[in-house]
Amino acid sequence: MIENIRLSIKGILSHKMRSVLTMLGIIIGISSIIAIVAIINGASEQLKNGLVGGGDNLVTIALYSQEDSYSPYDTHWNGKIEGLSTISQDSIDMTKNIENVVDATPFYFSEYSFDVSRNSVNSTMSVYGINSDYLRIAGLELVKGRLFSQSDFDKRHNVAIVDSRGSASLFGNEDPIGKTITINDEIFVVVGVTDTPKDLDSINSLSDYYTVIGYSMAGIYIPSTVWQGVAGYDDIQSILIKSSNSDSLAAIGTQAAEILNANVMVSGYEYKSTSLTDDMAELEQITGVISILLVGIASIALVVGGIGVMNIMLVSVTERTKEIGLKKAIGAKKGKILAQFLTEAVVLTSLGGVLGVLIGALLAYGIGMVVELPVYISATSVAVSVAFSMGVGIIFGLVPSVKASKLDPIVALRYE
């Protein structure tokens, strides 16, 4: 085998131009596949980091009406649900014990905004009723002012923390600390300002859009103990869960929903994950289909390259007819002749595959820099590409190799 490889390399080097032209289809096909897969994998990773928890590894479990699986149930529009109780501490503790869960906290939330105003300024905002752990778990940093104190919760103080977008909307350039706002006719004193979960000004791509879309409204946070006075109910809660990694979010969402649904005794309602994992899955499915189509198109170049290999190997067999006849005359078996030519075809296509991988990687990084997309070249795609190119050599080199092995030595020696 080693001798066959040495002879194959010697033959390739002795006909450099012909070998390069023969390998061209293989190089184009493999480089196209490597570039396509690298760019799509990089885009998928960017989508995962952008969509799943917005890069913060967060997932929310909220109550849904089984008749409307699109958006969480919202009593701001639909009214109180009789027979539904708040999420128990036992359920929360069980949620925290799920594998890969770092922390979890219940909270109240209105998907549809409450009426929020300050003097003559009215704004559309989402309102959250939170405990002392929520902002930490959500990864929100305090920009100015203070967090809620235990006294705020115990004494049911009407205090609020607004995010920076809400502050700009209600107060402009004014310092909001100590000033009052009205939420559903209840007066609240602003005691703090947090950063905004996602920056709407950062939308420069599809990934940015899907990252931001779930956080498009300004947010106001109030103590969970005063939520009922503003919303008129305190039975429907959601849970915010922080995971140690983004890959486990879907499993965590499913397990947490099962824990909460075990205590839902009211028919027609269920807790479900409201993270953006479903959006990511749909987008990855779309990109997967596109990837298969593009790789299929690129594979046409491999077929063309394979035909070129077969053609040049048939020419090689013709050129070396006397050499084959001589080898068979001195005792070379059919298998030896077949192995020699088959090895030459495989070495030729494998070399084309390696060059294709290198060119494809350079092409992928070049395109990534131009369109500002990350590039991810996996070892699996490289190994599969090289193996595929070797397979092309075996398949398309088989016919010439068999032809060479079947030559009659007397006829071959007489060949002119």
Descriptive terms for the model:
55% helix; alpha+beta; 2 domains; six-stranded mixed β-barrel
Ordered list of secondary-structure elements with their pairings:
Blueprint: H1 2-14, H2 16-51, E1 58-65, E2 68-72, H3 75-78, H4 89-96, E3 101-118, E4 121-130, H5 134-138, E5 142-145, H6 150-154, E6 159-163, H7 164-171, E7 180-183, E8 186-194, H8 206-212, E9 218-223, H9 227-231, E10 238-243, H10 249-261, E11 269-273, H11 277-319, H12 321-329, H13 334-371, H14 379-405, H15 409-414
Parallel strand pairs: 4-9, 6-8
Antiparallel strand pairs: 1-2, 1-10, 1-11, 3-4, 3-7, 3-10, 5-8, 6-9, 7-8
Written overview of the protein:
It is a single chain. This protein is an alpha+beta fold. The chain has two domains: 2-49 and 282-414, no CATH class; 58-244, no CATH class. Helix content is 55%, strand content 19%. It is built from 15 helices and eleven strands. It has helices at residues 2-14, 16-51, 75-78, 89-96, 134-138, 150-154, 164-171, 206-212, 227-231, 249-261, 277-319, 321-329, 334-371, 379-405, 409-414, and strands at residues 58-65, 68-72, 101-118, 121-130, 142-145, 159-163, 180-183, 186-194, 218-223, 238-243, 269-273. A six-stranded mixed β-barrel has the order 3-4-9-6-8-7. Helix 2 packs antiparallel against helix 14 (379-405). The chain is elongated, with a radius of gyration of 33 Å.
